Amino acid sequence: TELTGLRLRAAYGMGWLDAVHPEDRAGVEADWQRLVASGAPLARELRYVRADGSCAWSLCSATRVVDDPGSEPRYLRIEQDLTEQRRAQAVID
Description:
- By secondary structure, the protein is of the alpha+beta class.
- Helix content is 33%, strand content 29%.
- It contains 3 helices and 3 strands.
- It has a 3-stranded antiparallel beta sheet, sandwiched between helices.
- A hairpin with a 5-residue loop joins strand 1 (42-49) and strand 2 (55-65).
- It is globular.
- The N and C termini lie far apart (30 Å).
- The mean pLDDT is 89.
């Protein structure tokens, strides 16, 4: 919620994809579907569009978590804000 500006309720489930930058969305969705289908962990950089229109860079890492055999899988997603790192790199370049 801090990175994207989305409220928790709006980001729940797949709602977080609404904040993904349009140029990154298809790739992010494809990576997520691979995670769901195969259980292979996801790790990729992506951009979010914040409510104010600015861009935020993130390293998104996700993995499938299953509590009990036969139960619905759950997914743990961790976002690392890379925005300041990207800005600093742009100054150097």
